[in-house]
Amino acid sequence: MIISKTPYRISFFGGGSDYPSWYKHYGGSVLSTTIDKYLYISCRFLPPFFSHRYRIVWSKIETVNNVNQIEHNAVREMLKMFKIKKGIEVHYDGDLPARSGMGSSSSFVVGLMKGLNQINNLSLNKKELAKKSIEFEQNVLKDSVGSQDQVAASYGGFNKIDFKRDNSFVVKKILHKKNIEHLNKNLLLLYTGIERTAHDIASKYINKLKTDNRNYIIDIISYVKEGEKLLKKGDLDNFGKLLHESWLQKKALSKYMSNSEIDLIYEHSIKNGALGGKILGAGGGGFLLLYVPNEIQKKFLNKIKKYINIPFKFASTGCEIIFNRINK
Which of 225, 266, 262 has its CA nearest to residue 244? Predict the structure, then answer.
């Protein structure tokens, strides 16, 4: 059995510029971090005495004999890509819900890619894992997804990720440890309970990135440099306010980015002391990240009890194999 452990991520600034339809023409940049919430995938070859050839456990339990009968798109297509001839079982568990803006679909792909390579005695470095995962989601699954989540999940840590017009990327570690730790203490992660599919939300606006939304994306990229400067200076309250500015700009990309319920939660948060925040991921629901000064968080949370607060810490480790007994 192989077990992979892959972090979820929080993206602060630059989302939208990581879509190839944008960065292949203009380049892109994002500022993001992974957190100590993880997605686990176990893979094992099935002994020959089972009546089924494939067993996939996610929100459903699938037991089938033909790979084409597998309902889970990513598992089906990746098993076909690897041309695994033996019977196999894939089991998924996550610390956070899917379709919530935490990069779970890409973390799943990265974790499965890592696990299936390992079970076949193949190894990938971080860059290869990220690139292959991006290619799989965008070219095999043909999902309307960006490229930042796969890089974040593969590398781990607090990073600035630059996307080049030649389809390459550069990962720069942000090293202001004390300032990053203080930032962590001023952030809250609230679950809105609104599920959505990032692919569906993003597909409504990514084709307009080079035309109707060009100026919005240029402004969104500028927040990456500004956010990095504020972190370096330790000007964290202004980092929080920059999140607010960026969220307003991101909302302007598409009417599907937010909705009346999200707007109500956000406005209530600002009235009660939050300096800024954003809906994570492609928008439309999921997790709301808020910058609330640490000293008022207890009072703040007492006024917003309807929504689940998820305590978290920034994490430095990307996707890794935490259990390997395939050769024993």
Answer: 266
In the numeric block, the tokens 């991101």 are attached to 250
- Same-domain status, 170 and 230: no
Cβ atoms of residues 163 and 169 within 8 Å: yes
- Residue 328, pLDDT > 50, answer no
* pLDDT above 70: residue 37: yes
DSSP letter at 133? H
Number of domains in the chain: 2
Total residue count of the chain as it appears in this document: 328
3-state secondary structure at position 121: coil
Q: Which tens digits make up the pLDDT trace of 53-99? A: 999 999 999 999 999 999 999 999 999 999 988 999 999 999 999 88
Residue 205 near residue 213, CB atoms below 8 Å: yes
Which structure tokens are listed for 3?
């077990």
pLDDT of residue 28 exceeding 80, the answer is yes
Kindly report the CATH number assigned to the domain that includes residue 56: 3.30.230.10
Domain containing 191: what range? 177-311
Residue 196 burial (10 A CB sphere; 0-12, 13-18, 19+): buried
Longest dimension (CA), the chain: 62
Do 160 and 210 fall within a single domain?
no
Q: Specify the residue for token string 């009660």.
A: 272
- Collapse the DSSP code of 157 into the 3-class scheme (helix H, G, I; strand E, B; otherwise coil) and give the result: coil
Sheet order of strands, 276-279 included: 276-279, 287-291, 187-191, 308-309
Q: Which two tokens stand for residue 49?
A: 């005495």
Q: Is the pLDDT of residue 213 over 50?
A: yes
Contact assessment for residue 318 and residue 34, using Cβ atoms and an 8 Å cutoff: yes
Separation of CA 297 from chain center = 25
Specify whether 254 is located in the same domain as 206.
yes
The string of DSSP letters for 254-323 reads: -TTS--HHHHHHHHHHHHTT--EEEE-TTSSSSEEEEE--GGGHHHHHHT-TTSEE----EE---SEEEE
Amino acid at position 76, single letter? R
Alpha helices in 136-276 (DSSP H): 148-155, 177-185, 198-202, 214-233, 236-251, 260-271
